[in-house]
Amino acid sequence: MDKKLAYRYLFEIIVIVFSVTLSFYIQEVLNDIEKKELKNRTLRGMLEDLEKSKEYFDVTDYYLKKRIQLAEKIIDTKKVTNYDLSMIVAYWDWGVFNASYEILISTGAAEYLNDGNLYIQIADFYHQTNLQSLAGNYKSSYIKFREHILENYTIESMIKFDEYIKAENETQMAFNFDKNSLDLMVKDEIFMNYVYNSISKITNIYFWERIWQEKYIKLKESIKKELES
Questions:
Q1: How far apart are CA 182 and CA 27, in angstroms?
Q2: 8 Å CB contact between 171 and 93
């Protein structure tokens, strides 16, 4: 074979190999840039999610404190009103807004975090087994107690649907029990045990919710630093 022709083939092979290698390298660089931008967009979305979660924390604080205050009032006065019942015969589902967290994990963008500790911080914030377990236990207690109330006491009336929608009530659509039933409830051991127990359960949720409020503040600052880096 002619040496010039051989060199020409060799040169073309080298060019092809180099072109393919360069193409893969460029694509990898572009993928990295895209993933880093996705990471930043997701973190900005996470900041928005955290703000929504903060609003949920504030609402949680309000209702949990109010329920404890009403339960303590029932214990101290040995009296209960229909409004009291509408507030304490209830439960509280726990959860935070985590759409951006799911994107961060599912897309692999978390690998591009500059601060290795930030991923641990994020995972710790969204791993809320304690609060979810406490809220689930609280709900189970509520369901059993609600059945007891409805089976053993007389409902006198309830708010009309249209009135309920217009009133922007603080709680679920509630029943009104007659005065005799209200008087008997505070003498009912099951009723009073629920009142005491609800204080205990709500206090536990409130304790852990405050811890998550502290985590929220630290996580928010860490994400801002990551975006600025």
A1: 72
A2: no
